[in-house]
Amino acid sequence: MPQLGRLEQWDDARGFGFVRPLASQAGADAPRAFVHVKAIERAGRRPAEGDLVRYEIERDAQGRLNAVGVAFVNASAMRELARSRVDAKSAARDRREAGRRAALLRRLATAAAVAVFVGGWLLGTWPGVVPLFYAALATVSFLAYRHDKVAAEHGRWRTPESTLHAIDLAGGWPGGLLAQQVLRHKSSKRSFQLVFWTTVLLNCAAFAWLLREGVVAQLAQSSPWA
């Protein structure tokens, strides 16, 4: 694997020296490697102590470290490398911030779901079978997510995403939200999240329509929890 280092103890008369990895990559006590002038590709000039180079490591028959594929690193390349590292750190920071916002959204949505379904029952807006129905499907959804996560960790047969979405669409989405938060499963896959939140909206819209049309009351008439 290519790495960056500096030449040290360079003996120009004999054409060899040593290269030590940059401390920012491998630590100040990183082992150095022997480098011969013949290992420097398209040098264009004589090497000098302190030169910054990119190289790879091989071991010789005695197990000693040798630098191969050595190439000088110019200032523009160093600036590009530094810029790429800054961009990578910025991207990682943005991902962490987006993850925190998504986690907060899931927690709020889960709490809101519990408050709405239980509160609606307590206020008499809908029968008790409604929160029980959602609780049952939420349990099924949570277990399905857990099964899929365990299967992924052990290389076993996965639960199709379409199955998870179908359960959530039917009303199990509060359990899906909880599973994503607690198990950290399917919480960062954008394509899955897009479909997941679509199922949430569709289920809520369908429930509102059924409630307005009186279908929920009709279905719950024969329920002992109505």
Any key phrases for this structure?
DUF1294 domain-containing protein; OB fold (Dihydrolipoamide Acetyltransferase, E2P); five-stranded antiparallel beta sheet; alpha+beta; 226 residues
Helix fraction bin: 55-70%
Number of strands: 5
Q: Trace the largest sheet across and list its strands.
A: 3-2-1-4-5
Structural class by secondary-structure content: alpha+beta
Overall shape: rod-shaped
Give the percentage of residues in beta strands: 15-25%
Termini gap: 67 Å
Describe what this molecule looks like in 3D.
With 226 residues, the chain is of the alpha+beta class. The protein folds into 2 domains: 3-73, OB fold (Dihydrolipoamide Acetyltransferase, E2P) (Beta Barrel); 97-220, no CATH class. 57% of the residues lie in helices and 15% in strands. It has helices at residues 23-26, 75-122, 129-154, 161-182, 190-212, 215-220, and strands spanning 3-11, 16-21, 33-36, 52-59, 65-72. It has a 5-stranded antiparallel β-sheet. Helix 4 packs across helix 5 (190-212). The model has no long low-confidence stretch (mean pLDDT 87).
Question: What is this structure's SSE topology?
Answer:
Layout: E1 3-11, E2 16-21, H1 23-26, E3 33-36, E4 52-59, E5 65-72, H2 75-122, H3 129-154, H4 161-182, H5 190-212, H6 215-220
Antiparallel strand pairs: 1-2, 1-4, 2-3, 4-5
